[in-house]
């Protein structure tokens, strides 16, 4: 009795509600089935490590350079991290000002061209650019318009 009042405001016996999960078995089976299905896509990669990309620098143009001058337009770390930004800056400079000269951080001059400068040295696009890009699943859409040594735009469009 004590001080419990029911919904009519009378003192009454406090009703006890049995704590019970209905259909416990079915719910647990349901949860397990859900978890299995939900995570199934990850299972086939279990324990597999995808080898890191190994972009190749062995192109005729790069091998022709004397060992000391085997450098990119900027230093390696910069290129690794910021080549996308650099390319966009190159594009904007050419399209907006018509100026096709890039002066790098060491004061060296480069002719601005994705196809004729970057891909002159990195003529192995599929073993260089694509090697990394496939690994991180980025697909730059540049090659529909800019030709590569491996595939000219005209050929790509003819397909
Ligand atoms: C729809 C076609 C198209 C696509 C796609 C495209 N571009 Fe261009 N891009 C152009 C045109 C047109 C110019 C101007 C060409 C000129 O004036 O020589 C240009 C110029 C450039 C230039 C400076 C000039 C040169 O020859 O390199 C760079 C760098 C460049 N684009 C980078 C890129 C990058 C990086 C991508 C992909 C992320 C890309 N572009 C995608 C059409 C395209
Ligand atoms: C004169 C030849 C030459 C030109 C032009 C050139 N590269 Fe390079 N690139 C190299 C060399 C050589 C290396 C390796 C640098 C090193 O080991 O210090 C390199 C390195 C790189 C790397 C880093 C690769 C890695 O495994 O760390 C990227 C990314 C890159 N270049 C992209 C570009 C892009 C984009 C352009 C055009 C904007 C370009 N390169 C123009 C010769 C060139
Ligand atoms: C060392 C690995 C590596 C190499 C080599 C490399 N890239 Fe990349 N690139 C990347 C990574 C990683 C990204 C994605 C960066 C991000 O999304 O922040 C990227 C992104 C880009 C983008 C921007 C794509 C977008 O849609 O935003 C362009 C353009 C590009 N790379 C051009 C090139 C070209 C051209 C070459 C060859 C001359 C090249 N990259 C070589 C690693 C590399």
Jot down its keywords.
159 residues, mainly alpha, two-stranded antiparallel sheet, 6 helices, 2 strands, binds heme C
Task: Draw up the topology in text.
Elements: H1 24-43, H2 60-64, H3 76-97, E1 101-103, E2 109-111, H4 114-121, H5 129-136, H6 153-158
Antiparallel strand pairs: 1-2
The structure holds heme C (3 copies).
One heme C binds at residues 87, 90-91, 94-95, 112-115, 140-142, 144-146.
Walkthrough of the structure:
With 159 residues, this protein is mainly α. It has a domain at 60-158. It contains six helices and two strands; from the N terminus they run H-H-H-E-E-H-H-H. It has helices at 24-43, 60-64, 76-97, 114-121, 129-136, 153-158; strands spanning 101-103, 109-111. The chain has a two-stranded antiparallel sheet with strand order 1-2. It is elongated. The protein starts with 23 loop residues before the first helix and ends with a helix. Bound molecules: heme C (3 copies). One heme C binds at residues 87, 90-91, 94-95, 112-115, 140-142, 144-146.
């Amino acid at each position: 009795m004590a001080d419990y009042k029911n919904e009519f405001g009378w003192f009454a016996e406090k009703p006890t509600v049995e704590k019970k999960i209905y259909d416990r078995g079915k719910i647990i089976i349901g949860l397990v089935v859900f978890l299995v299905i939900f995570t199934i896509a990850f299972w086939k990669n279990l324990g597999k490590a995808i080898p890191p990309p190994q972009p190749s620098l062995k192109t005729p143009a790069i091998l022709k350079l004397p060992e000391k001058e085997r450098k990119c337009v900027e230093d390696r770390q910069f290129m690794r991290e910021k080549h996308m930004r650099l390319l966009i800056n190159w594009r904007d400079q050419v399209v907006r000002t018509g100026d096709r000269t890039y002066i790098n951080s060491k004061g060296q001059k480069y002719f601005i061209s994705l196809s004729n400068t970057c891909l002159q040295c990195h003529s192995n696009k599929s073993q260089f650019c694509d090697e990394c890009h496939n690994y991180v699943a980025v697909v730059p859409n540049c090659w529909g318009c800019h030709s590569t040594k491996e595939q000219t735009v005209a050929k790509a469009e003819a397909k």
